[in-house]
Amino acid sequence: MSDFTKDVFTGLMFLIGILGFISGEFIVSSTLFAASAISSNVLMTRRLSK
Questions:
Q1: What is the mean pLDDT of each run of 10 residues along the chain (50 residues)?
Q2: Which of 38, 34, 32, 35 lies closest to 16 in space, CA to CA?
Q3: Is the distance from CB of 20 to CB of 28 less than 8 angstroms?
Q4: pTM of this structure
Q5: Residue 29's CB: how many other CB atoms inside 10 A?
Q6: What is the structure's pLDDT at 1?
Q7: How far apart are the first and last CA of the chain?
Q8: Is the dihedral of CA 19, 20, 26, 28 positive or negative?
Q9: Are 21 and 29 in contact (CB under 8 A)?
């Protein structure tokens, strides 16, 4: 996957997490927020190490 696709995927996870939080699905939204944060940190670490 290209960097753009990974960024879009991370952004979509974050937006779906926000929508889940608004609709009251707190467990799902917490999981999505955590997954997007971890993937964002992994992507940034890989970019900085290059």
A1: 81 86 86 85 80
A2: 32
A3: yes
A4: 0.67
A5: 18
A6: 64
A7: 17
A8: negative
A9: yes
State how far the alpha carbon of 30 is from the alpha carbons of 1, 37, 49, in Å: 25, 11, 29
What burial class does residue 32 get, using C-beta atoms within 10 Å of its C-beta: 0-12 exposed, 13-18 middle, 19+ buried? buried
What is the Cα–Cα distance from 39 to 13, expressed in whole angstroms? 10
Structure-token pair, residue 28: 């799902």
Instruction: Give the gyration radius of the chain's Cα atoms.
Output: 12
Cα(26)–Cα(33) distance, integer angstroms? 10
